Each structure stands twice: as structure tokens, then as C-alpha cells.
């Protein structure tokens, strides 16, 4: 009797399958966002050291606008605003989710929602990562740069061999924090119809009304994914520190 | 979209401006932008205090205490804020029979998570301040508490200021997740107006972006003003 | 590896779930009706952004709507003070289980799957799932099969569509305004909702757009909305049923209906032959 009641209360196996599918999408969109926003963020941070005032101001504007407004309306902007501007043929092509032939690899195009969600997340996270990295570069002391010049290193060399590695080391823990944020933020893409973990979780809730059970699973899955990123980050940071000491 | 319908949208915003700013006040409880400010300001203050303490803890604690602290902080960094708010609001009263007001739950959840991030920023700053400085400070005859308080911490905080501002800004924006427990902060009210007026989501959420931008940018300006004024003091 | 992780997840979460359940079951044995009467106040959860069922009035900033009227009628019949608790699909069940609300009167659609988690009163409202699209796009139910369709989160619309028309692509948005924005932008070709909400939507938009869109001539389901109650509260459920049936008998139900959907309202819609108490019960 008790066990029957319990199994009535638990989520049916098919819903666990749904959650799993949602989790995969969450991982995909987070991973791609981390990848792109790290690349773009570093480029922006480096460019923000440019000697041209215009470039510096432009980058500051970019960082300000994307960091100081909430992600959710930004996603609406990409999905409804930019989605509106795109040519109709292109959108229709995307809606069909065509498969792309890359020689030996065939990739199914992700959904229009996924692409717009990824774009929004990347633009948003890039600003944060650029800022963290800029903070790291500022942490490297001016004296070190002068010393590098004195050693006869060129501007680029001193940047590449003196500033960059140290900045990377200083800002790394903060970057890991941003990566964890990206996983959490990815849940907001459910508002524009990306079939990720939170979206699926809401579907299950609507269908079964087992809110607590459903949210318990979802919370655990997020915590696990984010702890894995954090653990890996800590581990890598320790190695960075040891390398620094040698 | 033609201009006339765009201006209709802004009329909707104008008509609801008072509602956006303070919600149902004074007939009901306070809401809107004012509540967003209250929520995020309280969370920022608590998060910063806890964060600095935990950051020092990360630097000086060893053994099991360090492990415990890391465990707690990892948990807080890992749990989505929405879920922490949800569980504290609904599960705490059921397990411990205490009824936490929704607004307090939101502040607590925001502050706890914010402090975990700030702790790591403080920690990163403190270990970056070079070993020589610690040694030099010790040789001046300062004890460990003094070294941390007067030498290491100020440098670490100054170095990590951009990171702090990042976290504070995040807290302001995350306060919009309070909808899960029906707290009437700004974004939530915007959603309600959006549902009533039906056809102006673009205008309403553009307005939301602008308001948050102003709040966050003002915070940033304030911080950079304050830190700039401090610099000469530190160096003379 | 993946399999292992899946298993681990399962075990890990069972613990938390059991805890939540234990508390939930524990609560189910108290008699809620006695509690409510002793308290002298009934807490009823209603939507606050779902016109015309429950939304914030522009002038007074108070929650009004059809569901609110029913909440008031129930409180009056019980001779109790009414406390409205504003809710949304994400927290209505937790509010009920954690006793922050005694009843849910929030456009709550009855399904068999849902009745495993909560009890439902007799239905007090009936709707059919319809569509809005550009004129001429949807003429027969077959037209749905190839479309991208926008739906609202927290409604059973998406589930129904997925079961009945698996080839249609359904995208759920947070609220109706977003679904409608997606329709206007061409991201989806139709949106789906209750006929009651769609009529309200069309009534609300500027004339130019109203001419462009139309509501589908057919509905693909018949759905019933009922009061949600905590599981196992038989006495409370019977009381609520009595009250609702009495509302139909003394004509109050019709008055409430006409206040929101009557001929003189902007979202006029005939009530049809539905009477409170009709419809399938779980």
C-alpha cells in the first residue's frame, strides 16, 4: 500500500526520459555559449587595450548595454526583434531544420529557437567574460610590463608571454563562475521555446502537476552539471597555480 | 511595425507608470521598481558582507573547516536562484513549521548565492597579492589579522572591484526571479501589464531593459566614483 | 557512463522526492474544512495575469475576473473572509500543498493525469481549444498538421496538440502576448488557446490587426475548468461542489458569465449549453 502510494507519487519513467532529453539540450547550448563567449570575450578584452579611443568606447558601450540589462528581455529582442528582420526564405529554411552535409559528418540544423537562444546567450555572456578578463589584465602590475619592455620584448611579446598567462590565471576562478552562470542562464531560453531542461520540466509539471517531484529532479540535475564545471575549474586552477610557482 | 502602434504601446506604459514604480502602494503593499531596488540593495549589502567573510575564510582556513566552506560555497554557486527561492519558500514552512515571508525568502536566496560568488572573487584577489607583501607586512610586526585587514584585503578588493560590480549587477537583475513566489517586483508587474494589454510586448520589455540599464549603470557610476576618490587617499 | 549517470540521478532524487512526499502525505490527513472555518478566512489562489479569468484592474490595481467572482461567491457561501493569493502555473500546486492556499480557482483544466495529484470540484466553466491564424490558413483540422503553432506554458494545449497532431511543431511561450507576437512576426503560423481567451485576445487588439486574423471555426477538444483542491479533502470538496451547483440554480453562475462574456462585453461569446456540474469528472 505504502509503496504503491509512493510509486504513484514519483515521476513516471517516460518523464525521466523527457528530462534527460532536456538536459542534453541544456548541455549543448551551454557548451556552445561557453565556447563562443570565451573566444569573443577574450578578443574584446584585448581590443579594449587598443590605442584607438573609438574602439575602446565602442567596447565599453557594448559591455555596458549587454551587462546592465536583464537577459530575458534581451532574448525577446533576438527572437522577436531580429527574428522579424531576417529574410522570410531564410527563416522558412531554418524552420525545416535541414540537415547539413559536411562530407563525412551530417549535422541536423538545430531549431530556430535554439539558434536565437544561443545568439542571445553568447552576446550576453561575452560582455561578462570580457569584463572579467579585463579585470585580470588590470591585476597584472604595470611594473611587470615595464620590466618586460626593459628585457627587450616587443609590445606583442610582452603581452603574449607576460600579461596574458597571468591575466588568465587571475581571472580564471571568476571565469569559472561565469561558466556556471551560463548553465543557469540557459534556463531562460525556455521563454523563447528552446526545449531545454527547464522547458521540459514545466511541461511535465503542467501534465502531471507533481511540482515538487519535478522541480526536485530539475534542481538536482542543474546542481550536478554546475558542480562538475566548478570541480573541473578548481582542479585546473590548482594546476595553473602550481605551474605559476615553478 | 508602424509608428502609430508603437506610440500606442508607449501610452500603455505612461498610463501604468505609477503602477510600474510602486505597484499597489499605498492601498496595498509596495511593489514595482521601488521593490526591485529594496530587494536588490538588501541582497547586495548582505551578500557583500558574507562574501568578504567567506572569502577571508577560504584564504586562511585549513583542514576540514576549509573543506566544509568549499562545500557550502559550491552548493550555493551550483543551485539555480529560481530553485533556491522556490525551495526556501515552500519547503522550509513544511519541514520546520516557520512561515518565511516571500520577500525575505527572495532577499535571503539572492544574498546567499551572491555571497558565494563574491567570496571566490575576494579569495582570488587575496591569493594574487604576492607572498612578498605578506612577508613584508609580517616583518613590520603586524599580526595576521592586521595584515589581512590593512594590507591584503584592501588590495584584493580594489583589484577585484570589477568582479564585485558584476555580481551586484547580477543580483539586481536576478531579483526579477521573485515571480516564482509571486513577489510583485518590477519585471513581474511588467508581465501583468503585458498580459492585460496583449499586443505591446516589444514596447513594454524595451522599457524594462531601459529601467534595469539605468539602475545598473547608476550603480556602476557610483562605484567608480567612490573608488576613484579613494585612490589618492591610499597612496599618500 | 550515461546509463550510470542516469541511475545515479534517479537514486539521488528519489531521496528528495520522498521527503517532499512524506510531508505532502502527512498534511493530507488533516481536515482542511475545519481548519478554514476555525481560521475564519479562506485563501484562494487565482491568476493575476490571465484576462478575463484573473488579472489586475487598470484603475484599482486589484485582481478581478471570472475566477475571482467565483472565489468571492465561494467565500460568501461559506460566510468566510476571502484572501486572494495571486498565483501562476509554476507555483499553484506548491501553494496548495504548503497550505498557503486552500483552493485553486485559476482557470484550472481538468485532466485524468492531473487528477492523480489534486482533486477537482465539479466543472464551473467549459472551453474548447481553438486557433488564431491569418485569415484562410486554418479551415479544417487537417490544416494544423503542417504548421508551427505557438502555445502558452502551463496549459494543456501543447500536450493535446502533441498527442493529436504529432507532426505539427509546437512552441510554448510564457504568455499569450508573446505567442501572439510570434504569430505577427511569422515565427509561428498559428497560436492555440481556449476559445474564451482567444475571443478576449481579438477583442483587445487594434482593428487593423483584428481584420488580418481569425479564430478557427472548429475546436479540437472540449475542456472543463474546475476548482482545484488538496487530495483527499472529501468534506471540503463536497462543500465546494454544493456551493457551485447552488450558484447555477439561483442564476448567479449566469450573471457571472455574462459579466465577462455577455453580449455587451468586448469578448462576447455565447455560453452554450454548459451548466455547472456537466462534464466528465475524475
Automatic annotation (TrEMBL), chain A:
Residues 23-233 form the ABC transmembrane type-1 domain. It is found in: Cell inner membrane; Cell membrane. Gene3D superfamilies: MetI-like (1.10.3720.10). Keywords: Amino-acid transport, Cell membrane, Membrane, Transmembrane, Transmembrane helix, Transport. PROSITE patterns: ABC_TM1. Its main location: membrane. The keyword Signal does not apply. It is a multi-pass membrane protein. It comes from the Bacteria. The chain crosses the membrane at residues 23-47, 75-94, 145-163, 215-236. Signal peptide: none annotated. Pfam families: BPD_transp_1. Belongs to the binding-protein-dependent transport system permease family. HisMQ subfamily. This is Amino acid ABC transporter permease.
UniProtKB/TrEMBL annotation, chain B:
Belongs to the binding-protein-dependent transport system permease family. HisMQ subfamily. Residues 33-223 form the ABC transmembrane type-1 domain. InterPro entries: AA_ABC_transptr_permease_3TM, ArtM/GltK/GlnP/TcyL/YhdX-like, MetI-like, MetI-like_sf. Pfam families: BPD_transp_1 (PF00528). Keywords: Amino-acid transport, Cell membrane, Membrane, Transmembrane, Transmembrane helix, Transport. It is found in: Cell inner membrane; Cell membrane. This is Amino acid ABC transporter permease. It is a multi-pass membrane protein. PROSITE patterns: ABC_TM1. It comes from Frischella japonica. The chain crosses the membrane at residues 30-61, 68-96, 102-126, 204-226. It comes from the Bacteria.
UniProtKB/TrEMBL annotation, chain C:
Pfam families: SBP_bac_3. Coiled coil: none annotated. InterPro entries: Bact_solute-bind_prot3, Iontro_rcpt_C, Solute-binding_3/MltF_N. Residues 43-263 form the Ionotropic glutamate receptor C-terminal domain. Keywords: Signal, Transport. Residues 1-30 form the signal peptide. Residues 41-264 form the Solute-binding protein family 3/N-terminal domain. It comes from the Bacteria. Belongs to the bacterial solute-binding protein 3 family. This is ABC transporter substrate-binding protein.
Amino acid at each position: 500500500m505504502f509503496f504503491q502510494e509512493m510509486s504513484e507519487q514519483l515521476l513516471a519513467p517516460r518523464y525521466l526520459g523527457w528530462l534527460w532529453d532536456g538536459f542534453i539540450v541544456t548541455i549543448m547550448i551551454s557548451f556552445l555559449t561557453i565556447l563562443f563567449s570565451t573566444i569573443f570575450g577574450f578578443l574584446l578584452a584585448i581590443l579594449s587595450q587598443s590605442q584607438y579611443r573609438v574602439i575602446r568606447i565602442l567596447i565599453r558601450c557594448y559591455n555596458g548595454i549587454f551587462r546592465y540589462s536583464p537577459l530575458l528581455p534581451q532574448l525577446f529582442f533576438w527572437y522577436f526583434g531580429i527574428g522579424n528582420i531576417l529574410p522570410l526564405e531564410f527563416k522558412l529554411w531554418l524552420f525545416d531544420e535541414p540537415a547539413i552535409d559536411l562530407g563525412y559528418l551530417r549535422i541536423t540544423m538545430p531549431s530556430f529557437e535554439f539558434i536565437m537562444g544561443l545568439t542571445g546567450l553568447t552576446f550576453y555572456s561575452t560582455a561578462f567574460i570580457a569584463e572579467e578578463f579585463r579585470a585580470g589584465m588590470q591585476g597584472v602590475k604595470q611594473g611587470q610590463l615595464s620590466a618586460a619592455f626593459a628585457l627587450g620584448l616587443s609590445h606583442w611579446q610582452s603581452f603574449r608571454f607576460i600579461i596574458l598567462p597571468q591575466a588568465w590565471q587571475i581571472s580564471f576562478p571568476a571565469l569559472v563562475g561565469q561558466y556556471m552562470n551560463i548553465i543557469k542562464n540557459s534556463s531562460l531560453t525556455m521563454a523563447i521555446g528552446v526545449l531545454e531542461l527547464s522547458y521540459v520540466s514545466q511541461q511535465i509539471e503542467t501534465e502531471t502537476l507533481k511540482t515538487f517531484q519535478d522541480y526536485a529532479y530539475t534542481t538536482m540535475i542543474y546542481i550536478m552539471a554546475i558542480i562538475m564545471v566548478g570541480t573541473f575549474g578548481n582542479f585546473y586552477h590548482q594546476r595553473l597555480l602550481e605551474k605559476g610557482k615553478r | 511595425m508602424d509608428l502609430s502602434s508603437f506610440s500606442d504601446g508607449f501610452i500603455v506604459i505612461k498610463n501604468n507608470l505609477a503602477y510600474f514604480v510602486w505597484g499597489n502602494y499605498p492601498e496595498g503593499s509596495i511593489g514595482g521598481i521601488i521593490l526591485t531596488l529594496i530587494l536588490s540593495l538588501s541582497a547586495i549589502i548582505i551578500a557583500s558582507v558574507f562574501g568578504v567573510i567567506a572569502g577571508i575564510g577560504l584564504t586562511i582556513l585549513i583542514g576540514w573547516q576549509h573543506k566544509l566552506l568549499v562545500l557550502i560555497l559550491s552548493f550555493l554557486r551550483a543551485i539555480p536562484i529560481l530553485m533556491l527561492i522556490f525551495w526556501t519558500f515552500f519547503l522550509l514552512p513544511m519541514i520546520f513549521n516557520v512561515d518565511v515571508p516571500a520577500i525575505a525568502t527572495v532577499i535571503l536566496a539572492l544574498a546567499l548565492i551572491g555571497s558565494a560568488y563574491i567570496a571566490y572573487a575576494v579569495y582570488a584577489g587575496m591569493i594574487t597579492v604576492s607572498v612578498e607583501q605578506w612577508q613584508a607586512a609580517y616583518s613590520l610586526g603586524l599580526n595576521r589579522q592586521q595584515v589581512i585587514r590593512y594590507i591584503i584585503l584592501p588590495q584584493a578588493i580594489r583589484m577585484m572591484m570589477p568582479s564585485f560590480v558584476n555580481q551586484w549587477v547580477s543580483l539586481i537583475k536576478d531579483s526579477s526571479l521573485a515571480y516564482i513566489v509571486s513577489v510583485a517586483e518590477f519585471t513581474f508587474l511588467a508581465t501583468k501589464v503585458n498580459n492585460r494589454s496583449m499586443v505591446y510586448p516589444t514596447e513594454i520589455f524595451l522599457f524594462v531593459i531601459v529601467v534595469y540599464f539605468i539602475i545598473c549603470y547608476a550603480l556602476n557610476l557610483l562605484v567608480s566614483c567612490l573608488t576613484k576618490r579613494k585612490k589618492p587617499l591610499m597612496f599618500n | 557512463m550515461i546509463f550510470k549517470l542516469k541511475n545515479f540521478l534517479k537514486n539521488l532524487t528519489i531521496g528528495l522526492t520522498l521527503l517532499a512526499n512524506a510531508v505532502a502525505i502527512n498534511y493530507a490527513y488533516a481536515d482542511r474544512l475545519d481548519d478554514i472555518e476555525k481560521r475564519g478566512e479562506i485563501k484562494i489562489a487565482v491568476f493575476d495575469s490571465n484576462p478575463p479569468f484573473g488579472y489586475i484592474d487598470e484603475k484599482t490595481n486589484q485582481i478581478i475576473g471570472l475566477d475571482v467572482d467565483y472565489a468571492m461567491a465561494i467565500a460568501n457561501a461559506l460566510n468566510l473572509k476571502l484572501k486572494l493569493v495571486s498565483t501562476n502555473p509554476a507555483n499553484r500546486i506548491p501553494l496548495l500543498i504548503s497550505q498557503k492556499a486552500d483552493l485553486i480557482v485559476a482557470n484550472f483544466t481538468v485532466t485524468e493525469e492531473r487528477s492523480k495529484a489534486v482533486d477537482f470540484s465539479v466543472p464551473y466553466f467549459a472551453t474548447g481549444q481553438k486557433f488564431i491564424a491569418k485569415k484562410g490558413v486554418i479551415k479544417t483540422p487537417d490544416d494544423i498538421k503542417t504548421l508551427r503553432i505557438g502555445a502558452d506554458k502551463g496549459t494543456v494545449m501543447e500536450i493535446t496538440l502533441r498527442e493529436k497532431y504529432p507532426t505539427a511543431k509546437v512552441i510554448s511561450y510564457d504568455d499569450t502576448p508573446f505567442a501572439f507576437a510570434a504569430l505577427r512576426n511569422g515565427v509561428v503560423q498559428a497560436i492555440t488557446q481556449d476559445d474564451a481567451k482567444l475571443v478576449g485576445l481579438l477583442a483587445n487588439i487594434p482593428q487593423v490587426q483584428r481584420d488580418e486574423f481569425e479564430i478557427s471555426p472548429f475546436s479540437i477538444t472540449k475542456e472543463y475548468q474546475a476548482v482545484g483542491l488538496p487530495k483527499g479533502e472529501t468534506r471540503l470538496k463536497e462543500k465546494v461542489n454544493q456551493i457551485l451547483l447552488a450558484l447555477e440554480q439561483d442564476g448567479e453562475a449566469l450573471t457571472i458569465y455574462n459579466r465577462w462574456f455577455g453580449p455587451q462585453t468586448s469578448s462576447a461569446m455565447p455560453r452554450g449549453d454548459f451548466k455547472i456540474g456537466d462534464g466528465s469528472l475524475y
